[in-house]
Amino acid sequence: MASCLQTVGGRTPIKSLAKVSLIAYVAYLTVANGLIPPFHWGWSWADLVFLAKIAFLVMAKLRYHVVLARIDFFSRYEMEQKIKMTKQEVKEEHKQTGGSALLKSRIRSMQMQQARRRMMSEVPKADVVITNPTHLSIAISYERETMDAPTIIAKGADHIAFKIREIAREHKIPVIENKPLARALYKQEIGEQVPEELFTAVAEVLAYVYRLKNQK
Fold it and tell me: Which of 37, 132, 183, 196 could, after both became Cys, cross-link 136 (CB 3.0–4.6 A)?
């Protein structure tokens, strides 16, 4: 009976208490109405038969409530299972969400790698690479026929910067150190033209590069 009185959260519900009280009340009424005589050692066979009948009546009336109690117990058991399934579904959803986040992160990483490879493939087209020798490299291209102004085609910091310089040297592209200009150009986006305030400084670098080429 104690298991029938427990709920999912471990507390005794008011409904179960009411059922127990009702069962006790029914038993009391049955015994009281039967007018059982006081106990004594000289009970006759008729007294014992009468007591057995009273007990039978009590059990008969309690049987219905016991059935209800069992139904209530199995209902709560089913509810517990549903709650467990709900918690499991939450865990699975969390795993799936985490998996989706991991997948998105991998996709973004792959996209960045592809963009970096495309950028590196543009470096051989540069006219000059301007560097801050500590950690910045910016590749500049200028085609008079197709561009209104010099354009940033690649840039990078740290190991990417060193990779840009390596590719530039492999293709015999001049690498010019200019710290202030490199820092200013690095703030611009790839594919953007050199801003007007930097155009003169970049033009001077390009003029120097063109003179070197003509000397060769």
Answer: 132
